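S.,

Sequence below, as promised.
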Amino acid sequence: MKIIPLGIWGGYPKANSATSSFLIQEDGFHLLFDCGSGVLASVQNYISIQQLDAVIITHYHHDHILDVGALHYAKLIQNQLHEQHKTLPIYAHDQDEQFHSLSYKEHTKAYDLAKTSQIGPFTIQTTKTDHPAYCLAVRLNAKGKNVVFTADTALEKSLIPFAQNADLLVSEANLYQEYEGQIPGHMSGRQAGILADEAMVKQLMLTHLPHFGNLNNLVEEAKQTYTNQTTIATVGKTYII
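The prediction came back faster than expected:
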């Protein structure tokens, strides 16, 4: 499994960047994980729009769905330009009326992520997170390798068994330790480390980052409790799991 971070920011993208999102590849299958601001431009650094095979949307906050509208137009144009028409499946929960807006003519079609067990080569599991908007964490399995994406969440005890023994935990870290409890539905680097430690994951990657401060402090916070490899997601780097 190959994972390429496309953006790392929470809320909005910094200049020439994108909000937290990932391109996940396995056996020639290209899965886009979240589609917020700047993501559609970023993903085209690695594959064409027509090469996208599926999209996962964790929830309906703008920093996770804003580029879906642009993706609709991209699919319309690319389907017009190519002889082979391709409908792009978009997987998201149906607990919000915006679910139906993910389908666009014959170009994209929405599917209920919570009722999906397989997307291409990936086996899928989901669990609800602790976030102001209904949001799903996602566990992907391919060829015996497991990657867990927390999506947006406060430290939630149910995530510990969900992430248990994962080869990689991709955790949000939108807060520094001194802001814990002040912004609902998000974790600090320290709390991401607690989750990684208690779930006994092999590696921890931090994303959905704050727009201020020294980001390396998030890693140091995580290392208070988690002793395995911890990194800030690097845009454009290919992580092989």
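The chain has a mean pLDDT of 97.

Coffee later?
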